[in-house]
Predict the structure of Peroxin-7.
Amino acid sequence: TPLAPPTGPTGPTTLGRRSAGSPQYRLIGPHSPQAVRCSGTLLILDQNESGLRLFRSFDWNDGLFDVTWSENNEHVLVTCSGDGSLQLWDTARATGPLQVFKEHTQEVYSVDWSQTRGEQLVVSGSWDQTVKLWDPTVGKSLCTFRGHESVIYSTIWSPHIPGCFASSSGDQTLRIWDVKTTGVRIVVPAHQAEILSCDWCKYNENLVVTGAVDCSLRGWDLRNVQQPVFELLGHTYAIRRVKFSPFHASVLASCSYDFTVRFWNFSKPDPLLETVEHHTEFTCGLDLSLQSPTQVADCAWDETIKIYDPVCLTMLA
């Protein structure tokens, strides 16, 4: 039986300069800096040839569940937390958040900054079953998206289509939204289990991958969602995070509550490229570097962050 997600959020990490926060982490920032999280603390870490050093830390009064870097300012990022708020931080200043946005009524589990340069848009997904759209220069949300019937675990912008984002939920659906219409464009009943993560392919605007509590990864062509275009099996517990490679069109990585990170090439007859087992607890955060085609960061409930070059990506480089 697949392991159900823990009752509290668990999540991502970020590389270059990183920020670390709560029980979950996001990996690899868009600039040479990067970010991760720890319970109520945002850690900004500098990576260099000698390893990692703490650059700065910020405290918050609740767990921080996700983090996203601005595409326009290498010092600015947004976090989200268990108190239903988002926090806007300037890592160049050793002070509290520049601004706090409090509209969600339950934990905010996911936050993502639009990849369209010049666009100041952030989406947040919450346990209150809503997605909110924000401009960090404005003190309130621009609009609220409703439709999911359970906890929202993941929200992520399309890297191809301005104003388009995806969300995944405990209601077992993947949904595609358009900010111009404030309505859902596509509803995909993607799994018969809670969907904890989704990501867009960096090379195909119609391809989205989902990872779920049923231990499977499924790829969806948004032009025809009757059947997945691929299914990847191998994890033995719930999949917590899935990320497409920014360098290889058919390569992706996933991490799971089975303590492993797995690398896949969905175009191959035998798609599993490598399994990495270097954590002693749930692996809950994962990202691939935007600067290096071989570098990966992950983190786990064992309170460690690993930065490494898996053999399979080194061979592809």
